[in-house]
UniProtKB/TrEMBL annotation:
UniProt source species: Takifugu flavidus (sansaifugu)
Protein name: Uncharacterized protein
The UniProt record lists the keyword Transmembrane helix: yes
Keywords carried by this UniProt record: Membrane, Transmembrane, Transmembrane helix
Transmembrane regions listed in the UniProt entry: 75-95
Length: 100
């Protein structure tokens, strides 16, 4: 694990170092303030861990997938609703400050 705020940090890969025979895998990961960074290096490390230890890749639940599909399919309607809400808020603010 390498402590950095830079997700594009170039580091010497730990797998190139000589390791004990009982070590099955060495991966490099980047973290900052106690959390893994969202970066390609960490994605690669996680994929290597999954492959080495046969960890199945979880499929999204059907309910989660249905919600995401619904949001994607109705993005235009959601945008119109959002704009209407903003306009109503704007009218309320204008009326409040011009009436007083």
């Amino acid at each position: 694990m390498h402590h950095t705020f830079d997700p594009d940090l170039v580091i010497v890969e730990s797998r190139l170092q000589e390791l004990p025979r009982n070590v099955r895998l060495t991966v490099d990961s980047l973290f900052y303030q106690g959390r893994l960074l969202r970066c390609n290096r960490n994605d690669i490390a996680w994929n290597q861990i999954q492959k080495t230890f046969n960890i199945p890749i979880p499929e999204p639940s059907s309910s989660t997938k249905a919600v995401v599909d619904c949001l994607v399919n109705h993005m235009g309607v959601l945008a119109v609703i959002f704009v209407c809400i903003l306009l109503v808020i704007l009218v309320i603010v204008i009326v409040k400050y011009t009436a007083g």
